[in-house]
Design goal:
Blueprint (H helix, E strand, L loop, with lengths): L2 H11 L8 H13 L1 H19 L9 H9 L18 E2 L4 E2 H21 L14 H8 L2
Antiparallel strand pairs: 1-2
Helix pairs in contact: 1-3, 2-3
Keywords: Membrane, Transmembrane, Transmembrane helix
Length: 143
Amino acid sequence: MSIDEFQDLLDRLGDDVPGWPAAQRDAAEALLRTSPDAAARLEAARRMRAAFAATPSPAPAIGLADRIVWKAMTDEQSGRAAEQPEPGDKRLSGFGVSLPVIAILALLIMGFSTGLLFGASLPDDGMTAAGLPIDAAADVAAP
């Protein structure tokens, strides 16, 4: 294995050489026994991973997700962006409707659709929806 191949594997597979696939691991371990350059690159990768692990990730700015969505909704033809919402605004600005209302409406539509699709496939067991036999329901309906 060459130094360039080792560096490529180090970049792709990380610095945990014992976790590499067997063929690459064996070649890398042989290279590490004979090459101070390979050992130095492995040590540099380990130091970099440790530095990243020690540095806390900053919290995202308040409203960042909203700003990203509104930026994506830019009218590309006119170059005009949609109106920016205030941070924490849970309304869809174009409709003036809150997200929970939209979620409830979507669930209602899904419920009605499911009833229409699967309601007609109920077994014909000779009973009405009220649990009466069909003959008895006809007697009740007849004057």
